[in-house]
Amino acid sequence: MAVANQHPAAESTRRAYNPSVLRQLALRVILPMALVALLLFGLLAWETARLLPPGSAGFVAAMWRIGGLLLVGLALVTASGWLVAARAVHPIAELTEAIERIGHGEQVRLQIDRGEILGRLQRGVNEASQALARSRNRMESELGRTAVELADKNAKLEAASQSRARFLAAASHDLRQPLYALTLFSSALRAGETDPSKLTRVLHIEECVASLDHLFSELLDLSRLETGAVHAAMADVRLDEVFDDVSRNFRMLAESRGLRLIVRKTDAWVRADRTMLTRILNNLVSNALRYTDEGGVLVGVRHQQSGQVRIDIWDTGHGIAPEHQQRVFEEFYQVSHEHAHPGERQRGLGLGLATVRKLAELLDCRIALASTPHRGTLVSLALAPGTPSPQAQAMDAMDAPLDVSGLRVLVVDDEVSILEGLRALLAEWGCEIRAAENEAAALAAVAGWTQAPDLVISDLRLREGRSGVDVLRAVARHYQQDPQRPGFARLLVTGETRSDRIGEIAASRIPVLFKPVSPQKLREAMLAAVFAARAHHE
């Protein structure tokens, strides 16, 4: 008898000299048979001794004969015992090994002996092995089919996600262009209006524009995050500067609703991307103000024993019920507009907190939420600590901030409405303006300036396959300056979300604003760009 795929003779020989089998034979079969033989021959010798007188010649001869027969008998008993035991033990050993191999997932087939009982055992083992093999093959086939179906579904989900992201990116880009122009025109109109009734109408227009701006900003952030166009530029960030931005963005809104916005001063630094962190805090504070009727919002910092810096945003709003707390950071999920401020109920898409979650993941920032209905909500952000920079301390020593009035600014955009809106707004701010729709027109526009402009603002994607980066480099070469680090300040404005375009901006190291840009953000970016350019060349 042998296991399939092995030669029977070789297998039998291997088993015959198996140390385990030899030990079993010696202990359980041969040794008992030898003891029985010794007992029988001992009885024979005792009977012989009784019949013959001790010491007689016949007695001695009989003892020798009995001893010889005893040795021969032992040898015969041992040999026959070995043969009988081997024939009995080997099949059992093979059955044992076959069962062990089946347990390890192998398929075996035993040769069937003629013995009825042993043959039935061998046939049973073979049938069990075949049944297990069929079951295993069927399971592997089902697993393979399930894996293919799962991969197909994952591919379809990924394609749907990418399709949605592309749709959001394209739609937000095309729709933000006129919105950006509307923002610029309404701001310029308000700056030049003195009639109270007309000014009220302009303010209503600006409120509508701000609402649209909020919606498109949510779509833009989501589409950029989903297309992988956003990468964290980690740096040491002074929280007090970020807090100042948040306070400036929302203080007037809080006061107009009779709420208090308290932003605690802090000397803490964190390791983060400043733009992303500012966006996170803006979304959280905006959400807190939206659902708070009385009291206010508090923003502060706590230093953890672990060394992390924790930012807390408290509000005294309506709170979030426990069943909603795990879902508020999902896309398009909104608890209810019932308790929102009347001017905010139709302003959100449920993307703000989803954007917060995605940005926090990029910053490796842990978010915690605790809320009690009718009492308020606490949202906490845990960030790694940062190291104060000497440059920040030097900036603190600067006196008055730069003013945009009197700046010579070149504006480049292939959308005439945006170009005219920027021209009107910057003129109200006291800037000297040159405007152009493409690279050639830009070089012609600055031909009258003997010195390079203080600032060039350009759209990223222009017609005829040109980009704003090309325009900025062309202007630098026109004034014989380094295209990579010219003496004038640079700003790119875009509605793009494609990763290749965003990568182009990142490689150029040029500050960028994403449309639609509020006048306040535009002014701040202009000041920062001019300050950085002057500081670099002093």
TrEMBL record:
<feature type="domain" description="Histidine kinase">
    <location>
        <begin position="170"/>
        <end position="387"/>
    </location>
</feature>
<keyword id="KW-0812">Transmembrane</keyword>
<dbReference type="Pfam" id="PF00072">
    <property type="entry name" value="Response_reg"/>
</dbReference>
<feature type="modified residue" description="4-aspartylphosphate">
    <location>
        <position position="459"/>
    </location>
</feature>
<keyword id="KW-0472">Membrane</keyword>
<keyword id="KW-0808">Transferase</keyword>
<dbReference type="InterPro" id="IPR003594">
    <property type="entry name" value="HATPase_dom"/>
</dbReference>
<protein>
    <recommendedName>
        <fullName>histidine kinase</fullName>
        <ecNumber>2.7.13.3</ecNumber>
    </recommendedName>
</protein>
<feature type="domain" description="Response regulatory">
    <location>
        <begin position="408"/>
        <end position="530"/>
    </location>
</feature>
<feature type="transmembrane region" description="Helical">
    <location>
        <begin position="25"/>
        <end position="46"/>
    </location>
</feature>
<keyword id="KW-0597">Phosphoprotein</keyword>
<dbReference type="InterPro" id="IPR004358">
    <property type="entry name" value="Sig_transdc_His_kin-like_C"/>
</dbReference>
<keyword id="KW-1133">Transmembrane helix</keyword>
<dbReference type="InterPro" id="IPR005467">
    <property type="entry name" value="His_kinase_dom"/>
</dbReference>
<dbReference type="Pfam" id="PF02518">
    <property type="entry name" value="HATPase_c"/>
</dbReference>
<feature type="domain" description="HAMP">
    <location>
        <begin position="86"/>
        <end position="137"/>
    </location>
</feature>
<dbReference type="Pfam" id="PF00512">
    <property type="entry name" value="HisKA"/>
</dbReference>
<dbReference type="GO" id="GO:0009927">
    <property type="term" value="F:histidine phosphotransfer kinase activity"/>
</dbReference>
<dbReference type="InterPro" id="IPR003661">
    <property type="entry name" value="HisK_dim/P_dom"/>
</dbReference>
<dbReference type="GO" id="GO:0005886">
    <property type="term" value="C:plasma membrane"/>
</dbReference>
<dbReference type="InterPro" id="IPR011006">
    <property type="entry name" value="CheY-like_superfamily"/>
</dbReference>
<dbReference type="InterPro" id="IPR003660">
    <property type="entry name" value="HAMP_dom"/>
</dbReference>
<dbReference type="InterPro" id="IPR036097">
    <property type="entry name" value="HisK_dim/P_sf"/>
</dbReference>
<dbReference type="InterPro" id="IPR036890">
    <property type="entry name" value="HATPase_C_sf"/>
</dbReference>
<feature type="transmembrane region" description="Helical">
    <location>
        <begin position="66"/>
        <end position="85"/>
    </location>
</feature>
<keyword id="KW-0418">Kinase</keyword>
<dbReference type="InterPro" id="IPR001789">
    <property type="entry name" value="Sig_transdc_resp-reg_receiver"/>
</dbReference>
<dbReference type="GO" id="GO:0000155">
    <property type="term" value="F:phosphorelay sensor kinase activity"/>
</dbReference>
